[in-house]
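INFO  loader      accepted 1 record
INFO  loader      residues=279
INFO  predictor   begin
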Amino acid sequence: MAARSVIKRTRNIMCGASLLLLRSTSHSFPFQNPSLPPPKTQLFPYSTPHTSFSRHFSLSPSGETSDEGESTDGWEEEDEAEPKIGDGGSGGGVSLQSVAWGQRALSIAEEVLMQFSEDIKLYAFKTSPRGYVYVRLDKLTNEYGCPSMEELESYNQEFKKRLDEVGALGDIPDDLAVEVSSPGADRILKVPDDLSRFKNMPMRVCYTENLESSCHEMDGVFFLDSIEEESEICVWKLADVKENRDPTIKGKPLNRKQKDWRLRLPFNLHRMVNLYVEY
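INFO  predictor   done
INFO  writer      dumping tokens
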């Protein structure tokens, strides 16, 4: 039984020096055993730190697609739990969820990746007990970390091929479903490791003023000003975005006081950092 696969890539819309990740557009390349009924609907989720959307693609027996459909027959959705570092999804890292064949599938994913350029890395890998494999690839030389659709499709084909070969030997299930995608707008940035890479982009920073559990969590949209490695402090400056401007005067930029203001925040007081998406 051949593996089924889905390829997803976030659509990037550039405006000046900013990236507006309006939504994640999914491209489906199903490879399914003829003995199985075709999936009636595939639901592809995409989200930002504050807004979630979904788009349905219905697949009829004739292979035609439409924007209708209400179920996800034939395809499992990733958990919609709050993302965190190392969750195998938006938080990157590996999550095998105690799946017996997970480590073998991960080794195959890493082997296949060696066939590609060195600037493409495995951002996240997750397996589910129901036989689904989720892979997110990060392109280090791309400003936003997004591999091209051709690169995602090529990796998907090679990975599926190897899974089928190993599955035929009985080392892993022979009917695994695969989803390959870019990290997406909701990727969680590690502090401080990922910050310098995205220093030219606004980031939404959730933080607290101290480590007490009762401390109120705050958030803001900032640019990284600097990182003080020895003292383990990030210095942030306000980003000139809508959320930080005077709402009573449309189009008014930040004033001098706002531009000069800085937030000095210890590494351990950062709760979550994401790329900022402005609509």
